[in-house]
Fold:
Amino acid sequence: IDITTPIEGDNIVNAAEDGDVTISGTTTDVEDGQVVTVTFDDGVNPPVTTTATVSGNAWTATDADISGLNNGT
Structure:
């Protein structure tokens, strides 16, 4: 599983965007209909997890609320 960049268009998630982050990516040898799990983790606060369904070796997870995580890279 790979993440496709840029995230949020400019590869930066700012305060105006952190309540509904969309992240996309690709897979290899994953059947259509399988679910991938994406976890956002700042190492301090509880991680935020979202899921997406694979279609054509691609996936998109929408509306992840990461506003409770610390800023960083």
